[in-house]
Fold these 2 entries.
Entry 1:
Amino acid sequence: MVDGDYRLDEFFQRYRAACPDVEPTPNFMPILWERIEGRRGFAFTFERMARPAMTIFAALCLLLLVLNVAGTGQGSVAPPTYTDALAADSTAEKTDYTEAIWNNPTSFQAPQELRAQHR
Amino acid sequence: MLIEQELIERARTGDPQAFNQVVLAYRKRILGTISRLIGRPEDVEDVAQEVFVRLYYSLDQLRTAEVFEPWLYRLTVNASYDYLRRVKRRSESRMADLSEQQVMMADSIAGGRQEDEERQKGKTREFMDALFRHVSDEDRLLLTLKEVEGLSLKELEQIYGAKENALKVRLFRARQRVLKAYEAAKADGRL
């Protein structure tokens, strides 16, 4: 393995020599600046779009907040009673379900064995 | 350091002339490093430009000018790693699956014949590429920086921001894998 290590080191050196020192082409700098500007262009476009979007969202949030507060304010003028709240909560679905239970008296009966034990 | 710290400071403030000077001072070194890291001369310039674009947009994050070189190396390693991932030319091939061309190339390297020098170098690069398929891209880069570029563990510590012992372990394992592949190639008479 020591011999292998030595040979591998040698091979690494050969690889180093095989990788040439690349000379930059005359276009290196112009292309580099093009790429920098290109990326800056994207960054600027994003920033330009992001700023108005943020303003619009902030305004929208403010508007919703105002509407919410106004809505709550109106409610506080005539606070709903407990029965009003219950009535408002009884949706059509709940009503159907409740009615179905009340119309089926067997659903309230305990199993026969339990009734016998109870007697 | 190839340049004055003051120049880096000026580049950090957005002075394009200063940045130009920084690039001119370092580009040859970075091109050479990338050439050895990725082993494909045709794409070296493209990766180097990516490094300098990243440098341009990240200079303001540099804490002090003193750590400029490790910072630049880190950008170089990251861009090379991204390149290797993007190309993903590597297959799951093992040494046994090396193409006929690669086997011939290995033979000619071993024989040390006086062939065309450039062709020989190309073959050496290809063979090293085949050996590097036995380690991850990260380890390939680490191993190249240490064994080919000749960076010290201290320098690697600065570039990777990792502890020396962790780097030693990682290097040892990567080297063992490459060595195993190298020995296998030798045993098969391909090297």
Note: Chain B has two domains: 5-87, 95-187.
Entry 2:
Amino acid sequence: MAQPQQHDDEYTHVVPASLYVGIWATLMVLTLTTVLASFAELGQFNIVVALLIATIKGTLVVLFFMHLRYSPKLTIAAVIASVFFLFIMFSLTMTDYLSRAWSTYGH
Amino acid sequence: MATSSEIRSAERSFQHHFSSMVQQRDTATFGMWMFLLTEIMFFGGLFTSYLVYRQAYYQAFVEGSQKMNIILGAVNTAVLICSSLSMAMGVRAAQMGNKKLMVILLLVTILFGFGFLGIKGVEYHEHWTNHEFPGPNFHFETGDPAHPATDPVHTEIYFGLYWAMTGLHAFHMVIGIGLVTWLVIAGSRGAFSPIYYSPVENVGLYWHFVDLVWIYLFPLLYLISHKHS
């Protein structure tokens, strides 16, 4: 089949369909993995494994389905900045909540 | 090579304050990303509340999460991932100017979206009839006489966050289905071409973002721990 985008070599980056299917298959396998991993007795590491798998899945979605890998550097910088500020919100909130009792009860 | 009808479609969609179609497209997509970054902080507030209450009332959260239907949650995760694939392939069809394929793939995406909401509705109904909705009718028991609920007041907070986070997510799904429906109507009328497909690309970004939120909601709400009840 003739593919018109091949002539538009600079305007759009058309990702091969096989790549999307590969990402989809990886996401499905990781979903199964996270469910199975949650039944393993890992103590405090259950949440670490769950968040690690979720972050791998999220990174694949953002890089390929959302085309971030093929986006201008400005977009990439903005996304990284946003994640950075999200972690500022998490960490400053937790430094408060985790340390509140210290002044009364000690560490 | 662009056909003459595609060039006419592009001329209609080109706005004079941009220097080129490339600049117009990149500006639109960057604007969409800016909106999605505010959405990250919007959901981020709920994730922060979750973090604070989870570390404070961990046992109550564990007991609450035992009431989640992991099978339905996992199936719904799979449904969303499939919808993201059909959306990505739909955007790809738009980039290639394959109108018919694009419309079909977007309709498949809508179908998956309704599938997700339907399964979510079954879960909501179950929680509602079990009084697992925060408020005056909230009532919580573990269902295991050997291990009665240790902290039902704080399990109510877990369910408050569960309904708020999944509810806000489901609301985004409803909006997403509306937007994709609009793409189907406009697309079947020939509004998009390989030169002008920004609405398809940017609604696609929105759809994938909503999928991304669920990727974190699923383990945090459903998979806390299976061993403590």
Note: Chain A touches chain B through 53 residues (CB under 8 Å).
